[in-house]
Amino acid sequence: MKVFYLVSTLLVIIQSAFAQLSRSDSEKLLACYRLHDYQAAGDILSRYYSDTTTNKRLIAEFAYSRQQADRSVEAEELYAHLYALDTNSISSMISLARITQLRGNVPKAIRLLRKAAEADSLNFDSRRLLADLSEDPGMRIRYTLEALDLRPQNADIVYLACETYLKLKLPEHAWKILDPLMKADPENISLIKMKALVCVAMGKNEEAIESCLNLMNKGINTPFVQLNLARAYYNNKDYRLALTHFTALLPDSDPEAGNYNIALCYLGLKNYPLAERHLLKAIEGGISEQTAVYYGLLGAALARQNQPEKAAAAYEKGLEFKNDGSLNYTLADHYEQQHNHELAMTWYRRYLKEVGSNPKKTKLVAHLERKIDSLKEVAAGRAGN
Questions:
Q1: In the prediction, which pLDDT does 152 show?
Q2: Is residue 237 a contact partner of residue 209, using CB atoms and an 8 Å limit?
Q3: Residue 215 pLDDT
Q4: Domains of the chain (ranges plus CATH)?
Q5: What are the average pLDDT values for consecutive 10-residue runs of the chain, which has 385 residues?
Q6: Model pLDDT, residue 1
Q7: SS3 of the chain
């Protein structure tokens, strides 16, 4: 009986909101919502919608169903229609801003949200979204603090505010707003994670370790937890425990950063041979495979600006990094164009050593040997004169 009464009540609500819907379609719509079948719900509502529709509730529900069904183009058009009916509606501004942002037009979304925030000084959603979308740290902090004033116990906005303060290297400000909420909600996982970050940044190493171990006891043993635990142990000069956690992270870490952190631990433990090994790995990891290519392009750019000495220096610098030997040829050609035949021959010979054993380069090798012979003759002729 209670279920029948509830269903009947919902049907009355739906029919009241969408007066033009038939009872049969109202029942189908209710069933779609119950099953989260937003595609079918939108198809029902589409039969009652046209460009001249002025029923705001119907348009809003139709737009929402299309958005939930991943039909964002239609959803944006519908939210735009809803906004056009009342350009002072805060909810319409925010709804249109959300879908616009999802479709990649962030500047338009920010304009709509700013309008909503200016129109309603107590609107939390517009400020929270602006804090999330603003790239400028100052604006991000402004809207975060405004949202925080409206809902000081909101964990999401406190997390966002702390994140922004940490990027600005102001961990003390983050701690000031985080600590009271942590005391009120000590089991909030997001807040415990943020506490670990803030404590590491502030040098509160014991509290950072406690937070990370708390997360691990709750079954959260992610790279984030391992990394911050390792940092806290290292800052506390507990190099052996720091090494344990940095080493566990190495397979999934950036080779440069991972080996660098391990090297620091070995330096702290005065194990210099292993520190050396990991520092060399860090150096290797920090060098792009394209570095030699970049120096080659830099040399070409300098040569075109009639700076031959700088060009040659760039080519030679590129040879210090992993390369296929082609920079030897580039240098030889460079010196040949500068009529420095001795150096041209030197670099051609070095290139020949790189490619001489490659059967695919037979014709090139023969060509370069003839070129070297030719350069020898030119050089000898100059010497005779």
A1: 86
A2: no
A3: 96
A4: 152-232 (1.25.40.10), 237-286 (no CATH), 292-384 (1.25.40.10)
A5: 39 51 86 92 91 92 94 95 94 95 95 96 95 89 91 90 91 94 92 96 96 95 95 96 95 89 94 91 84 90 92 92 88 91 91 80 85 83 62
A6: 40
A7: CHHHHHHHHHHHHHHHHCCCCCHHHHHHHHHHHHCCCHHHHHHHHHCCCCCCCCCHHHHHHHHHHHHHCCCHHHHHHHHHHHHHHCCCCHHHHHHHHHHHHHCCCHHHHHHHHHHHHHHCCCCHHHHHHHHHHCCCHHHHHHHHHHHHHHCCCCHHHHHHHHHHHHHCCCHHHHHHHHHHHHHHCCCCHHHHHHHHHHHHHHCCHHHHHHHHHHHHHCCCCCHHHHHHHHHHHHHCCCHHHHHHHHHHHHHHCCHHHHHHHHHHHHHHCCCHHHHHHHHHHHHHHHCCCCHHHHHHHHHHHHHHCCCHHHHHHHHHHHCCCCCCCHHHHHHHHHHHHCCCHHHHHHHHHHHHHHHCCCHHHHHHHHHHHHHHHHHHHHHHHHHHC
Rounded to whole angstroms, the Cα distance separating 179 from 165 reads: 14
The type of residue at 192 is: I
Please report the pLDDT score of residue 6 as a whole number: 36
The reported pTM is 0.68
